[in-house]
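Justification of computing resources. Each target in the renewal requires a structure prediction run like the one illustrated here; the chain below, 258 residues long, is used simply to show the kind of job we budget for.
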Amino acid sequence: MWQPDGAAPLGKIGVLTPHLDPVPETEFQAMTPNGVSIHAARVPLGMIGADGKIVPTIGPEVAKAFSEPPAVDQAVDLLAPLELNSVVYCFTSSSYILGSRNDSVLKARLEERSNGIPVVIQTSAIVSALRALSIQRISLMHPPWYTPELDDMGATYFKGEGFEVIYHSPAHIHREYGDPAPEKIFSWAIDHTPDEADALVIGGGGFRAIGVVSALETKLDRPVITANQASFWCALSIAGISHPIREYGRIFDTGDPV
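Resulting structure tokens:
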């Protein structure tokens, strides 16, 4: 009997991620069904200070720079020869600055570099997931390293897409950049999701949160959408992959993105 060898007969998904961030590709890998492979390209992100250490917060200027040529375009060039089914732009915060119209321009630019391989913009995927679930009112939770200004931009983005933002804030779990303990994410989300919200949205591709989605949906009795989860759902749909995904949220039980 042959053993699994990493081949991907069902499909191949590309990931564009900040150079210091392993979270998007590893969360994708955690959710990936057999027969699908994940391929990442790293894009420089200006969160390294003069002392060589990671700056503990991310603000608008750093976020916007990630989306600009040439680095992200060159990363797409490196992925394109792999004949991927889709490429996911795993960076939420630049969308808050660019807005959905400029995100469409970014998507078109990257798809030109990918030779037509579809590109999923992460924040657009969150919007698609919310619409597929008929969500109107959301509670918005951001990574601890988001500045208040960037958090406000996130709320403004979703309001501009027609959603009512009941509550929004960075999760004040810890000060440093990196993975919070799942129990801390769970406790913060429970304490800061108003009853009036139809769903909890966890923004930030670098915020490792998919491990608590199932527990949160059970406790809150409503959908929980994360940036990586929603964009993976979109990427699977583009690839025509209907393999069931369990324990990572109600969104995988819905139809195609809208």
